[in-house]
Task: structure prediction
Amino acid sequence: MELSTPGPTVGVVGGGQLGRMLGEAAGPLGVEVVALDPTPDPPAAPVVRDTVTAAFDDADAVRELAERADVLTYEIELADPDLLAAASEETATPVHPAPGSLETTRDKLVEAEAVAEFAPVAAHRAVGSAADVRAAGEELGYPLMVKARRGGYDGRGNVPVEGPEDAADALAAATGHAGEIPEDAAMVEALVSFERELAVMGVRGADERAAFPVTETVHREQILRASATPARCPAPVREEARATALDVLEALEGRGVFGIELFHVPDADPERIAGEADEGATVLVNEIAPRPHNSGHWTIEGANCSQFEQHLRAVLGWPLGGTDARGATAVANLLADVEEPEPATLGGVEAVLGEPTASLHWYGKREARPLRKMGHLAVTGGEPAAALERARRLRDATTFR
Amino acid sequence: MELSTPGPTVGVVGGGQLGRMLGEAAGPLGVEVVALDPTPDPPAAPVVRDTVTAAFDDADAVRELAERADVLTYEIELADPDLLAAASEETATPVHPAPGSLETTRDKLVEAEAVAEFAPVAAHRAVGSAADVRAAGEELGYPLMVKARRGGYDGRGNVPVEGPEDAADALAAATGHAGEIPEDAAMVEALVSFERELAVMGVRGADERAAFPVTETVHREQILRASATPARCPAPVREEARATALDVLEALEGRGVFGIELFHVPDADPERIAGEADEGATVLVNEIAPRPHNSGHWTIEGANCSQFEQHLRAVLGWPLGGTDARGATAVANLLADVEEPEPATLGGVEAVLGEPTASLHWYGKREARPLRKMGHLAVTGGEPAAALERARRLRDATTFR
Result:
């Protein structure tokens, strides 16, 4: 295998923080990145070769990106699989992960059914009406989660249902449709109480599969706040989670990193679980992102090869990098705690910069919006619990003004 | 301390691999880099906000860079201290390290005399003629090293002298002047036999000083080939080297990272040593670069904060980062082993990418020239000697064709 100058160009649909961190990982490899984003001067801009300013569904722009690239990828699920496939076909530029992975993961019901062939998931049903929700409740029991099948992120579109009386309101809240809802708009899932939320970054390479060590994720209001790696659960649970993530990769197509979110459910009622599971399985697959994921940011400082470098290697068909953890790593998100949009300004940064084991990642977004991900910080070394505590303390020392 | 978007801009004179790695370190901090280089599309270009194409001594271009930047720095000693000072004064943009540090380090005699006030160096003399060289030989003994005071790098301009009969030829070879040489062109130094070559990256912050752990460097034909950190010498020697580096920082001005090269000379004749030394000192200062240095590349994977991030923090007046090593790290340079210039193509890359503990750094230079630094690889973990062995093995698996 040879490397020349200029190295290969990776065209990325999306120029947000994930595109920026792909750009940061590309430099050392001699890889160049061009990012397509509707926002002029998006977060990726200062660290990549070039940007294309266009809507994600602008067919001409996606084709232009494909023409300029040796391989096409995406860092946002708003990328359109049909457009990617068409641009790839017209230009003979491969797209990874395969558009089929995007098709699968952008519809939560399709995803659950695809995953269920290889790994355990919560029991689930398609629903088209409040009556369907109540029927599912009869069958699976309550609580349930009503989910919009498409377009949700950071928990948007997920509404819990405690009993039949909530069904109509929950369906309306999840889908945004007050009356009748489209046939393919919603699903319900058994809400299985979990002990911990876990995540594993899986990767499909040209002819190898790999999974990073298991991360414990901490959400509040369904938004990821912090993570600790390795996850603080018994080693057999971590092994089960990693093995489950490797199984999940079978349900996906093409090359790249996949963010796989899981629940540790030691006491789950087997009636509320579906899909392929070993006897006594205590880990359920929750959601999959066909791209690097917030819960894998620990890999930048914490693994031999970051999820971003790994994604570039995978989509280029290069050998995968080492996935081992270099020690404990905790990450805390810097979410804008503002009431309304305002220019992005983070105070208290000296606390983060002054901590010798901490690394700051500022995404370069111009506007702070309520709970928007503006950056993150990582803390390495020691025990995961102590690292997590330090990360939270440093996060709490920062303020958006 | 606050961070906004866009973050501060650092203007860098020089857009080679050091400028590129500064750009790679800038992204996570939200810092933007603009690099000035005479080569269009230099190595830094794909990873920085912008480049200015101009000669290093183009006063207008340096002033333009200063106008666009919040702080000015340089990654190459060809930067002109007078121009930097003038541009800084005209634009009120600070320049770091202070131009005085560049004045000091770009003349090896001035540097030796400045360092000697704080730390031990080899005994040395200014020379203006072969007779001066022979007089120094009488006084200090042989062997000596004749050095061009300015413009040498990678050992160019350094010529050893074994006895008085070599004096004239060595002086001519070192300076490029066949007959009479300019008064300030050359110096001689006692050539002190050393057990190991060491290097320490020192850093002057706004109101703190720091030094990274001690690296062992391996040169051949006076070009750095590989390094291992921590250096394989007794702990007291490492402590002496680090303390000596901190002393050297006193001889310098302004903020930034300084690459400090040292010799471990356990059996040196005290007559052949000059400068400020504790009794029984066994470490001599060899050379100083007022910038990140090849022997500090291990810090990217090996330290909590890389020398490049550290340099950015320092020149911006931010808190310094952690200097602790995260474990053993070895680096091997990828030097173009070509006979004459040709397009840059490195083969055997799969060996480096396939080693889980190795990281590749390809500098994106278009042309391979004999012994040009085209990239490096780093290997982490285990003992330094074993890491060095792995790094060399991986380097040897690559070939320029």
In short: The mean pLDDT of chain B is 95.
